[in-house]
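User: I'm putting together a teaching handout on how multi-component assemblies are represented. Below are the sequence lines for each component of a complex, exactly as they appear in our records. Could you produce the 3D structure of the whole assembly as structure tokens, so the students can see both representations side by side? Please keep the chain order the same as the input.
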Amino acid sequence: MPPAWAAPYVAPWVWTVVLALVKLVVVVAFVLLNATVLIWLERKVSGHMQNRVGPLRVGGPAGLLQSFADILKLLSKEDYAPRRGDRWMWALAPSVAFAPALLVFFVLPFGPHLVVQDLNVGLVFVTAVTSFTLLAIFMAGWGSDDKYSLIGAMRAGAQLFSYEIPMAMALVAVALATGTLDLVALVERQRAMWLIVPQFLAFLVFYVSSIAELNRTPFDLAEAESELVAGYHTEYSGLRWAIFFLAEYTNLLSSSILGALVFLGGWNGPWLPGWAWVIVKAYALIFVAMWIRWTLPRVRIDQLMDLGWKFLLPVSLVNIAVTGLWVAVRG
Amino acid sequence: MDEERKPEDERGERAAPGGATRAGTGRPERRPIPRVAPAQPAGPPKLTPREEEMLRRIQAALPYVERDTRVLRGLGLLVPAERVHEALATLKSLPGVLCDHLSCVSGVDWQDAIEVAYHLFRTDDPEVRIVVKARLPYTGDEMPEVASVVDLWEAANWHEREIYDLLGVRFLGHPDLRRILLPESYQGGFPLRKSFVDRRPKRQRVVRAR
Amino acid sequence: MEGRSGLGVKGVAEGDGRGARGTVEARASEAPPAAPRREPEGVHTLEEAAAIAREAEAGVVQELTINLGPQHPSTHGVLRVIARLDGETVLGVQPDIGYLHRNWEKIVEGWMYPQIIPFADRNDYISSIFNEWLVCRAVEEGLGIELTERAEVLRTIFAELNRLISHAFWFGTYAMDIGAFTPFLYALRDREWAYDLFEKATGARQLYSYFRIGGLRNDVPDGWLRELADYLDYFEREAYPEYIRLLYTNEIFIARSEGVGVIPKEVALHFGATGPMLRASGVPYDVRRAEPYGAYPRCEFEIPVGERGDNLDRATVRVKEMRESVRIIRQCLSMLPEGEVLAPKTPRVLKVPEGDLYVRVESPRGELGLWLVSTGGLGPYRMKWRAPSFVNLQLLDYMCRGEKVADLIAGLGTIDIILGEVDR
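Assistant: Of course. Below is the structure of the complete assembly, with chains in the same order as your input.
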């Protein structure tokens, strides 16, 4: 519904469409901006962890514009397609990977009213939508007609599937403890205490699973460089590869924001405005993920499965049981 | 001969070894340097007592084995081509010898024959150093044959393939006798034979004036 | 064998069956160890792999053949590995080598001995000092040239320094093979200083051509030995503990290495493995000890051995060897005499007498051997290069059967191959 001052001039449906477009642009801009920052940050963090300095030349003293140089380079590359394989599936896969990554941002709140669409089942929506990434990876792996891509896609399938469950279970415990699936309400209930304190186990399970979902080291089996060359995106180059890359970093950002909202109290915090707190907390989680990535070796596929099914899942189930008991006892 | 002259020239331009003092200035003092290698002791290289004992043991077990005096270090044995496998199997299990490490299998082309050599060692006794050699006569482009020892030492597998590839010796009983270093389609002969001619187009060479 | 009399060394290798004749005979009277079968068994996963292979033949399992290489991020050069897979399980691999083949042995046949040294460097380009040492030793032994004391000790110092950085580099690449990129750059950091040291003394960073028949090209510059001592201090105080921490405190590193790619003792000997590959399987065999050369007979050092022969043992053996290298260099520094570095009696015309000899040195990858056949000319009649990587690579198939794809790469990493040496 248009507000009172605009009501005489625009039809309600026009207002809705325009508003939706504006929101879309804002979200895409936010995502792209953050992705460039994340690429720069990853290079900087890895550089300093590896006894190097990272990008330095492009754009100012700290190489701030390095990501833009990267993007320009990727845009200027030849769009090279595998001769055989399923051409359509191959071409669509990057977009399919990026779409769910973007979709998540429409329900992530940055403040009590700073949200594109306040769903009352936001938590469920997020977990449901992120699962779509698997589809894109399968499309890429199958469409490329490349054995490395295929193995990478199969690994990704097994991995995403087995870590989706512990992650959802961790969130179930959270929903049980707070009694809501609405992300805004969830954050509001953390005014007194961040959920990471009572739900530390759930946080641990959530964080490990989200790193696994993101295909980051030590769980980067799907694109294991030393084994599968580049996994499911072996056959991608230029812009298509860039979109995959973008989707990856967008997923990193969205899952970190989700972690910040659900476990770290979201916008609750002194001095800074609420949305800034969300960003700061999310970037703290991202930094830890980068730290882990540049420190640890990769696990093997069977060890990965063992960790998911034999450790994380039981732990999260126990956590649900304990939380349920606690809720029941407390009334 | 031109070959004879070159090393002298090289050495002549530099300070004589041993003549220069590091702190010294000016031209280093030249000391007479022996022009050729010290005279070699006449006769075959001497064996250590242990090697002599090993030779006795081996000859007792394998009467056809002769000592190869061309081998400058260690115990060299000459074996008829058709007895190579038997000889190596014996060396592997003969008490007092018990070679357990086949270090190298190699071959050399003597124009009329290819000599294959097996270098055997023992990991817990450094005094056991045995070279077993066998001459495989051949003419022209034919490939001489010898029994493979892969069943005794898997280590011989790739060495034998390499000899097959580069020297043209067929190892009978080898499980997987294929080319190993050269491409499968290579047609140019056996590069390590002395009769090998490189048939690739010649690259232009820059000849430096001396 | 003159070095054996001065063998006042202690170590793991000391003790069983070495030296005294009596013990040798006692050992000899035992039955010889049975040769393992061609399809070696004993690792439970192998049986599983065999079962899978049978199923594959029956058409139950669909095999997937993948080509790793010749262009692949982790084949350490241009190696091609044809791997047969059932899902993630490796059914068998077949290394395909020769992409870097230049027929080294043929090329040098027309050359004079001093000319061969720089070209020999190109074989094992990560630790090239060993190549030149081998060529020099072969000619020196053939000619009976006695080196000066200083030359022998300096050669040992350079060799051990090269071993140190070769193992450090291996450590980095192995970590990269199992997915951790960061240790690689730390290994390069430690290698850099050593390369600077090499550059100061030899003028080159990687391919030195520093050894001459009869000694060394030049003495080390002033202050070099002090800087070397600084480097050793740094390595022992900072770099080495870092490697140890990375290795033994990282759960994933251990999980990825322990019990993977097991090579029993008998199999390692059967396949002719040498160097850390053999020692990790529990055979304390080291050419430096078995056939002492250089200054090794006067140095005190241990030969680290493993127990099971898995990837972790191979890593441990190499890391421990780094420490032993530091020890050896320290001892060499303390015993380094003044004097010339080129033997004064080196003849001008180098003609190895007619005959053949087989010389070995212990390179970081194993036993580096050279069979020199001479007809009394200025150059070799035939030179056979026994490259340790070439022989060790044969074990890849054995190591990887029944393991996962990731372990194939890790196994390839622990063999530590240099393709320049494999293909020659």
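A couple of points students might notice: Confidence is low (pLDDT under 50) at residues 1-44 of chain C. Chain C is about 45% helix and 10% strand.
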